Structures are given as C-alpha cells and as structure tokens.
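Minutes, methods subgroup
Present: GH (chair), OT, SY

1. OT presented the first of two proteins processed in the latest run. Sequence and structure tokens recorded below as shown on screen.
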Amino acid sequence: MTLSTQQQALATQRAEEAGLAGRVRFELKDYRDVEGPFDRIVSVGMFEHVGVHHYDEFFKKLNALMPDDGLAVLHSIGHMSPPGMASPWLRKYIFPGAYSPILSEVFEVVERNSLWVTDLEFLRLHYAMTLAHWSERFQANRDKVIALYDERFARMWEFYLISAEMMFRTGNQLVFHMQLSRSRDAAPIVRDYITDKQRDYIEREKTGRMRPD
C-alpha cells in the first residue's frame, strides 16, 4: 500500500520486469481504508509519518487486520533520547511532518490496543552504513542528478545523506524492528527461526530458486 502514484507505478513496473506481476499487487490506498484479515503485515518507513496523535488509530488498525495467530513487523527510525523534533531544515526540505518516535511513546499505545510485542530488534549502525553506500552512489552519479534537477538540489541531497549518516553514527538515531501479535504464541518462543529462514532465502537466491517457475 502507498499514497504515492509514482511509487506505485515504479513498483508495478519492476515487478513486471522481475516476472512477479501475477504474485504481487501494489495498491494506492490509505492504510486506514485497508480491509483484512492478513496473516502477515510489514510496515517499512511509514510509521515516522503517521503522527503521534494517530498512534492509537494505527495500532488499533493493526489489531483489527490480524487474526489471533497473525504477525506484524513495524520497521521505523527512532531515537534513544527524550522526545524531540528533527531539525527545521530536515522538516522543511526532506521529510515534512516526519517524526522519529521513542519506544516509551510506542509501548504505551501498543499496550492500550491489546497487542503483544513478540520481538524487538535494534539496528544501531545498519542505517549509517546504508546511507554511506547511498552517498557513494550519489557521488558517482552526481552529474546525472544535476541534469535531472539542478545544482541546488544536488547540494541539498548531498548534505542530507552525509548529515543523516553522522546522526546514525554519533547522534541518537537508530532503527528498530518491532514484531506484534494479538497472542503471545503466534511466533516461535526463540528467534532462531528468523536467522534460519534468512539463510535459507540467501541460499535460494544464490541458486535462482527465488524466482517463479
């Protein structure tokens, strides 16, 4: 689900190019209008834009969309210090309206909406490494970016990538994965299954078994 027509079009195109058009669907829809149930739900990079005053609505919707044995994974940027806003520059030019939550804000609402936190993982430096790779690729294609937009845009994006990397290396930013369910036993009681499944997927991808027949 997305609210971006460009993202929907690009995702659909890439799925077709990968031979997955019959297996995935990308809908232009607000999450509040989605109808379930779904046994698995994944939210990536969206929670930062929900807004603190809509957290109850968000987790209530997650609860309603899952059966008792369903699982949801919430991937979000957060921070480890007391609540605070991003810099005025970042809010104006890069992420208007975005807000990085702290877990004390999130847990309170999760509890009110009768959801179990079945797992919680912190990616402390992963996103810093990701931003470093993005910055390298940006520099390698900087002339193309200027041709598409202009020098001002290129300098702003350059500043964002470098400053964001430093926030994740030396500041209070982090990424967290929160696994949620309506019941305590929806997931295995130890997280070994996550690593085992990941290794299985990596091996399948190497041998080409990830693609449809």
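2. SY then presented the second protein from the same run.
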Amino acid sequence: MGNFTAKLAPALLLAAATLGGCAVTMPEKEIATLSEVEPGSVLVVGAVEVVPPLRPGEKQLDIPNDIFGMEEMISNRAWLTIGSSPATPIDKGEVTINPELGQTYFFAVPKDAPYMVGGYVMIDYQHIQNTMVRDRRISIPGTLRLDIRPDDEAIYVGTIRVKRDDFNEVIDAALVDDYQHAAAEFKKRFGTEARLRKAMFQTTASR
C-alpha cells in the first residue's frame, strides 16, 4: 500500500440532457471478452474504493428526463477520465470509465491516452428546470500515469482507495496492490491464455 499525493481534480460534467447542454463523453462499456479490446488499446484492470463505504440511502440522485440512464451510471460508481496528457481537462478526456465501487473493473483504454487525470463519485444531485439544486461529489485524485508497454494486452493498475471525512472531503488517498485478487477475477473472466501484467499507476507532478 502506498499513499499518493496529487491535485484533487474538479468534477466531471454529466451529460447534455442532464446539465443544461454541457456535453461530456459517455462512459466506455466494460469489457466482457478480450476480442472487444480494439487494436491500439489495452485492457486496464483495477478497482476504486471509498472509505467509509457509501451507506444505503446515502446517495440522493434526482435526474429528471433521464434518457441517457445517467442515474444507473453514477449509482455506486466512480467516474474517471483518461487522457493523452496530464494537462487534459477533466471534462475533455479521450475516454471516461465508470467502475462500480469496490469491484474489480475491466475497461479498454487507448495506449496513447496513458493518464488518469481525475474523477469523482456523485453522492447528491438534483437538477430542476435547468437549475442546479444540489451537486455534491467525492473527488478522486489525479493525475496518475498508466505504465503501458507496446506489447501489453492487459495491465493491473491497483486499487485507488479514497478516505473521506464526515463532509465528504478527501482526507487521504492510497494506491493499494491487490494483484492476486484481481488476477483471479481476470482468469475467471478471460481464461488462462491471457496475460495480466502488474503495472501499478505511477504518480506524476501536480498539474
């Protein structure tokens, strides 16, 4: 386990219909088979945890006209932005992923977009008649670099563990090595022929 120091990234915008016309890249679909990983991409395996975990009923999400299914996408999930540069704006990354909290995730990202520039966990949101009524989020630190090699098929990046206080401010962030558990999940999903290389997130200078 290791602590990492990084600038807390501002929150992502949600979607055009949700936040009054401000568009953002919709999250990638989680990978079920390795054939879904396109050439030039790598399968990234890891997890995101919030400590203490979200309590039942703690999230208050009110998204009217939810034609994109955003409530399901942000319920008990993190949103992380992947970009080609550590200076990539949090709402303009090449890829957005939304892993379920506390679960091993499997997402494909472009090899030429090797930075996780930040993200958030939404806990309280209400939008009524083009007016933001409530918007509270737990920020996820960035910027972290993906250690991608040209021949990588799949890499394990670690668990981002974010500790919050009673006001949902981040008081500590750590990168946890849970490779054995993730490798077992990887083997269960993709079989024994695929190779998962341990390549923990690397810290970069604050933006």
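Chair's summary of item 2: The two ends are 24 Å apart (CA to CA).
Next meeting: continue with the remaining queue.
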